[in-house]
Amino acid sequence: MTTAASAPASSGRALPSLPPAVSHRRAVDWRIRFAVLSAVWGFSFLLIKIGTGAYAPFQVTFGRLFFGTAVLAAAMAFRRERLPRGLRTWGHLAVAAFLLNALPFSLFAYSELTIPSTLAGICNATSPLWGMALSLVALSEDRPTRRRVAGLGIGFLGVLTVLGAWQGFSGLDVRGTAMALLASLSYPVGWIYVRRTLAGSSHSHLSLTGAQLGLATVQLAVVTPLFTTMPASFPLMPLLAVVALGALGTGLALLVQYGLVAEVGPTTAQMVTYFIPVIATAAGVTLLGEQLAWNTPVGALIVLAGAALTQSRARSTRTTTAAGPAAAGPAPAAAAPACGGPADRATAPAAQP
Questions:
Q1: Which of 60, 137, 142, 351 is deepest in the core (most CB within 10 A)?
Q2: Residue 188: which of 135, 109, 115, 118 has the closest Cα?
């Protein structure tokens, strides 16, 4: 997913250092936490598909944000963190909440009404490509290199391969796919906004992320009743999927992501980006019985290769900032703080799905 605290390298997101309280002791090896984060974000697309089988997309998104916020609120209480102060900061966080959480989470939920979870997971992997393209326009200090520009071209060639462009996109749900790609584009737009408005904030990552997810929850709390009706029943499996999507795929995932960035650095932590679509595809095929044409996995590999090139030879400068996904989804962490995550970092974790 994603919040103001994290963002992809290609979009110029800055990865701030964690508060001392977060980085003292690591009882679990970082490789295990890396694997857990990859799995949680990779399975997020399957959980979205299960959730939307019984609940409206806005309801799934609201539940995801509600339970994710609850986890971060508990973490803030445990660490005695305070919410940010200042009307200006809250205004910027409200925009970040929309671009990095409310909008992409909702778009992914709506997209999976008509496209497989495998395709949604692969679309999420395009976030670094969108971020690279946008940073060339919006961030004058982000100088392109031949390798990164080549990666951009290769990545979008992979997208065309996944979509079967030579077949005229036959059999493809254009609307659902466009929503998933728009969700992936929303992450780097949000990261760039955060970089320009919240970089250098004195507030902790946990405080900013908790506030951001809380604002996104409020936004969905307003929108959801306007476009949906209360479910007549609450099927257990879809309900558990929404709870897991929020508590694990959004709340816990962001906490794990921060710990990884603090311990092993953004360059290593961002590698989770390349595992998310693989896990999402494996989960969709094995657990949901989704079908794969040859061009889907081949195109996904090309997308990942292009994304890797766009983040090569990046500057190692790191500055403290407010910035996921998180995005996402993913995500690209991206997750800034999901989703979560996944602003002067040339490298960063994946976008939270």
A1: 351
A2: 135
Residues 76 and 66: their CA atoms lie apart, in Å, by 15
Query: At residue 56, what are phi and psi to the nearest 5 degrees?
Result: -65, 150
| Confidence grade of residue 310 (pLDDT, cut at 50, 70, 90) | confident
Instruction: Give Cα separations from 220 to 97, 98, 304, 308 (angstroms).
Output: 10, 9, 32, 34
The single residue listed with the structure tokens 């090896």 is: 29
pLDDT per position as a tens digit, 49-94: 999 999 999 999 999 999 999 999 999 999 999 999 999 999 999 9
Q: Is 62 within 8 Å of 302 (Cβ atoms)?
A: no
Would you tell me how many other CB atoms lie within 10 Å of the CB of residue 244?
Answer: 20
Question: What pLDDT shows up at residue 141?
Answer: 59
Q: What is the DSSP letter of 351?
A: P
130-181 pLDDT tens trace: 888 887 777 655 666 788 788 888 888 888 888 877 776 667 888 999 999 9
Q: pTM for this structure?
A: 0.81
Inter-helix orientation angle 276-288/117-124, to 10°:
180
Tokens of 217: 């929850």
Residue in 222, 197, 230 with CA at minimum distance from that of residue 65? 222
- The CA-CA-CA angle for residues 241, 239, 112, to 5°, reads 55
Amino acid present at 1: M
The whole-angstrom separation of Cα 73 and Cα 77 is 6
Gap between the Cα atoms of 257 and 45, Å rounded: 18
Pair 329, 46: CB distance under 8 Å: no
> Which two structure tokens, joined as six digits, stand for 214?
């809380």
Helix (H) or strand (E) segment spanning residue 59: helix 57-79
